[in-house]
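Quick one, C-alpha cells below. Sequence please?
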C-alpha cells in the first residue's frame, strides 16, 4: 500500500472509530464513514470490504493504543497503587465523553453481544488486555485474590461509567471515582 493509501486507511479507521463510538456499530453505515472522511463509498470499499473488516481494524487500533498506554503507565509509575490510580484517572480525563456516550469498550461490547457474537469476542480483547494488566498490577501488592480484585476494580469502573451515562451525571461519576480511589488506597 502506498503512503497515501495508508493515510487514507488510517483516516477511515479514525472516522469509523469516532462514529461507532458516538452512534453505535449498527447505526453507522459505510455511507456515514465515507461522508465523514470525504471519500466515495467505492473508495471506502477499496480499503475495507465489509463493516466487520472496519471493526477489526478499529479494535486493532484500540488494542495498540491500550498497549502503549499501559506500557507508559508501567514506565512512568513505579508503584502498583500509583498505576491503579492512573487507571482511574483515565475516567476523570474522559469524563465528558463517558457521560455523553458511555465507555467506548463497554458500549461496543454490549451492542455486539446482542447480535454479532464473533465480533464481540474480538472486541472483548480490549477488556482482556486491561484485566490482565490490572491483575498483574494488583498481584504486585501481594494479594492472593489478585484476579478477583482486578476484575472487581474493572467492574467498579465500568459500573460507574454506565450509571453516569444513564443519568448523564458528572457528579455521580466523580463520587464513584472517589470511592474507587479509597478502595485502591485500602488494598
Amino acid at each position: 500500500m502506498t503512503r497515501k493509501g495508508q493515510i487514507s486507511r488510517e483516516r477511515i479507521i479514525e472516522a469509523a472509530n469516532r462514529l461507532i463510538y458516538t452512534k453505535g456499530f449498527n447505526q453507522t453505515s459505510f455511507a456515514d464513514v465515507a461522508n465523514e472522511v470525504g471519500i466515495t463509498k467505492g473508495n471506502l470499499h477499496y480499503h475495507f470490504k465489509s463493516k466487520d473488516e472496519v471493526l477489526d481494524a478499529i479494535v486493532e487500533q484500540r488494542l495498540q493504543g491500550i498497549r502503549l498506554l499501559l506500557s507508559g503507565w508501567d514506565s512512568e509509575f513505579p508503584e502498583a497503587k500509583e498505576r491503579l490510580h492512573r487507571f482511574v484517572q483515565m475516567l476523570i480525563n474522559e469524563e465528558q465523553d463517558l457521560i455523553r456516550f458511555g465507555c467506548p469498550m463497554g458500549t461496543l461490547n454490549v451492542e455486539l453481544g446482542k447480535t454479532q457474537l464473533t465480533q464481540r469476542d474480538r472486541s472483548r480483547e480490549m477488556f482482556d488486555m486491561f484485566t490482565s494488566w490490572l491483575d498483574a498490577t494488583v498481584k504486585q501488592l501481594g494479594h492472593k485474590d489478585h484476579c478477583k480484585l482486578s476484575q472487581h476494580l474493572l467492574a467498579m469502573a465500568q459500573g460507574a461509567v454506565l450509571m453516569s451515562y444513564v443519568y448523564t451525571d458528572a457528579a455521580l461519576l466523580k463520587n464513584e471515582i472517589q470511592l474507587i480511589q479509597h478502595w485502591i488506597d485500602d488494598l
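The mean pLDDT is 94. The two ends are 49 Å apart (CA to CA).
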